[in-house]
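Exercise 7.
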Amino acid sequence: MALLSVEDALARLIGGAARISRTETVDLFDADGRVLAEPVSASLTQPPFDNSAMDGYALRAEDVASLGTRLDVIGESAAGRRFAGTVGKGQAVRIFTGAPMPEGADAVLLQEDAIRLDGNIIETNFVVTEGRHVRPRGQDFLEGEVVLNAGEIMDAGRVTVAAAMNRSQVTVYRKPLIAVIATGDELVSAGTAPGPDQIVASSIYGVSALAKAAGADVLYLGIVSDDRSQIEGAVAKAQEARADIIVTLGGASVGDHDLVQPVLKSIGMELDFWKIAMRPGKPLMVGSLGDARVLGLPGNPVSSMVCSLLFLEPLVAHMAHLPPPERRARAVAAMALAENDHRQDYLRARLVRRPDGMLEAHSFGKQDSSQMKIFAGADCLIVRAPNAEALPAGAECDILTLRHPA
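Solution. The predicted structure, written as tokens, is:
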């Protein structure tokens, strides 16, 4: 099977993945970042009554058509405690922000525009017009009005307006469920003392973290040895949980101990493609098993993380009804870059923001895909297209951002 370009591989991966259709109802406290599956309409009118936008005096505008008018203050209206009477000719009610407008009043005179005289008399030094500083009933929204639409992503503002509409819950799409399976006799979990021929399975943690940040729930099914029955058992658990994406780490190549691909094929996986013209991350496997998309990541930790950024993250976003992540940017290469071969290269680099605002990418000298310390210290990946010519220092280059520069 010929090597696919990164762009073609991503298009085929996304093209074969259906968006999540299952929904669930969540509390507003848990709704941030979720995608609405149904429109949200108001169950009440907001504001429910005419109210004052300022502290001052509620009155009849026709009574203060000229400066120096004197009015009798007959009561007070506060938020949660309205004035029960009616404002008549030559009268006013002391009112506070958010308080209901009294019957008969149609405007608010700011407190600083009134002079308090002896007794309950005020004298006006400002002319107001009808409706001045009054928030009319329904100014924000009306009962039954659709304010939030399906497909919108809940954030702080949308959660707030949903609450104002008296909705304590909303219906959202379920998050994609990703089942993560690590394979290899040589692997142990972090915190476990490895044997003389073993290493810590670090990729499972980074891949899971990236998947959660992208909008997925993660079901970690542990480390399984290079054994057909154990791999089959882990995949069966993923299917029982109705995983939308099955991610395997390691074992997807064609070596004597690489059993993931043949085992998955034997239980019904349709292989779409594997092997991408990229570095690191060439041995990527993509297929389908029932309704689940299968993504076989390389066991090498840096390769698995780069492949997760390029393929798993946009796959999760697509299935979750979220916009595709935008990591692409431009930077200036701080040092010369050699010409590239037929594979798209991703070089780990630090970012520095120059005084002119331009980003400057400082490539690490060593790019061995086993070095996670360098990946952890990188702010971006410099993208080198297949067969790219040598690039001099100071020239612009494409990057994928991993984090903002310090």
